[in-house]
Design brief:
Layout (H helix, E strand, L loop, with lengths): L25 H15 L1
């Protein structure tokens, strides 16, 4: 997996409202795994 970039305040993307999650699919699980890897790296 790849380590992802971390957004720092006041990046405007942190204010963007996201779409609701309708289903947890393999792609979303991979994204969550990559985010955990980034957090603990």
């Amino acid at each position: 997996m790849s380590v992802r970039n971390i957004l720092i305040h006041p990046d405007p993307r942190l204010r963007k409202v996201c779409a609701p999650v309708e289903a947890v699919d393999p792609a979303l699980r991979r994204l969550a795994d990559a985010m955990f890897e980034t957090m603990y790296d």
